[in-house]
Design goal:
128 residues, alpha/beta, four-stranded parallel beta sheet, 52% helix
Amino acid sequence: MRPIHTSDQVRAAERAAGEELTSGRLMAKAAAGLAKEVRAELRLMGKKTSRSRLLLLVGPGDNGGDGLHAGAELARRGATVMAWAAGERVHAAGAEALRQAGGRVVEFEAAQQELDRADLVIDAVFGL
């Protein structure tokens, strides 16, 4: 069973992270953890990361950044990765990392079409 934390508990943990949060190290850890879980899920599905299609649904904040950086790592491993910004803006550094790795940030119509082809859809819209 996985523990569930309240938003107050998560905010307190983020405050305690201090410099790790502001330096980007916490986002790097979150992205690496997410990418690892995606690779494990793909293996359970009998799919190779290098042949997978992934659709990220990303919000404008750090949760979106986590997803975009994870998408960048997966794209570097050969996955086809598209990200749709669920708001008016996207985490800039995460989007740039994804683009540099060969992934794309797409408009709603392209994301909608990708839904039928994606092996996994990753929710990185909101988080705490």
